[in-house]
Amino acid sequence: MKVPLLDLKCQYQLVKQDILRVTEEIYDSQYFILGPHVEALEQQMAQYCQADFALGVSSGTDALIIALMAAGIAAGDTVMTTPYTFFATAGSISRVGAHPCFVDIDPATYNISPVGISAAIERMSPAERGRLKAIIPVHLYGQCADMDPILEVARDSHLIVIEDAAQAIGAEYKDRRAGGMGDFGCFSFFPSKNLGAFGDGGMVTTPSKAFHDTLVMLRNHGSHPKYYHSLIGGNFRLDALQAAIVSVKLKYLDQWTKMRQDHAATYRDLFSQCGLEGRVMLPVEKETRHTFNQYVIRVAEKRDELRAFLLESEIGTEVYYPVPLHLQKCFSFLNYREGDFPEAEHAAAQTLALPVFPELTAAQQEYVVDRIQLFLRK
What we know:
There is one protein chain. The two termini are 21 Å apart. The chain has 13 helices and 12 strands. It folds into 2 domains: 8-250, Aspartate Aminotransferase, domain 2 (3-Layer(aba) Sandwich), CATH 3.40.640.10; 253-376, Alpha-Beta Complex (Aspartate Aminotransferase, domain 1). Helix 1 (8-29) crosses helix 9, helix 2 packs parallel to helix 9 (240-250) and helix 10 runs parallel beside helix 13. Helix content is 42%, strand content 13%. The radius of gyration is 21 Å and the shape is globular. The chain is α/β, with parallel strands linked by helices. A 7-stranded mixed sheet has the order 1-9-8-5-4-2-3, with helices on both faces. Strands 10-11-12 form a 3-stranded antiparallel sheet.
């Protein structure tokens, strides 16, 4: 049996007619950049994420960059974040001239540790504290970070909070939505996300009108009005085509999320029935609503051999992320060493993502767990 990690062709069949209709409208109008479709999606996203304002941008990476720019983060500043995330989180910090300061993760959720944040700030000299301007918690794999203590530390230390919610649209923390708790929320519409475009796209949410007005200017080269530039921005505009496609798919998002949650429950039952829960660590659902952008298991040893065995069985998997950011060559100037963030390093060595896309069948899930059982009992 063949089980892909993700199958977007099945999803497309459900939304195909609506997408063809809205894209044909755009072809007829020839209005491709910003415009009414982008504005409509911004309103829908603000409401969905429980945010006051939302701004469509060109990608999830650009959402992070423009949020950092709007917050005034620049050369010489420091931004605290996790070493266990996609590269764009820390890469965006460096892109604006600031330095990433890493904090280890909670081994159960893989999200940044609030205790670690407090301890890192306490260890800083007065000069280092003066350079620290923001925290970027990442809501990894579809589950929110532990936001209340993070927000409390940020308030006490006068820090901006930028939620990296690229993998967590619709996730909830104590009935608050991802992207609606900090000063900014950053989303990605990369095609593989729970809510994906047909190319790149992103969104920034904020509760602040002042930040929103700044974001609007930065998105279009700092221009307001046209050809008058009080800020140096960039081309961070969202295409109308991508906005229209995402708007169509947003109507189905809660349905797809429920299917992912059902698959997660099925995996838990199947692993329990096989007696593998002691040998395979399953995702911990700590917060209110886990949306399972990925379904990530953990095995103490032979992760790579297991992945190779599953590949031979035609089962798609992925390792997120095999090299923590503090050990990436491009960040060697930060002078981190192996062992500095042991929980992130253990997660990088032991985790494996299994298929969890909405259209996954029960038979496919049974096959996945059967193959894992066969490998572990050899």
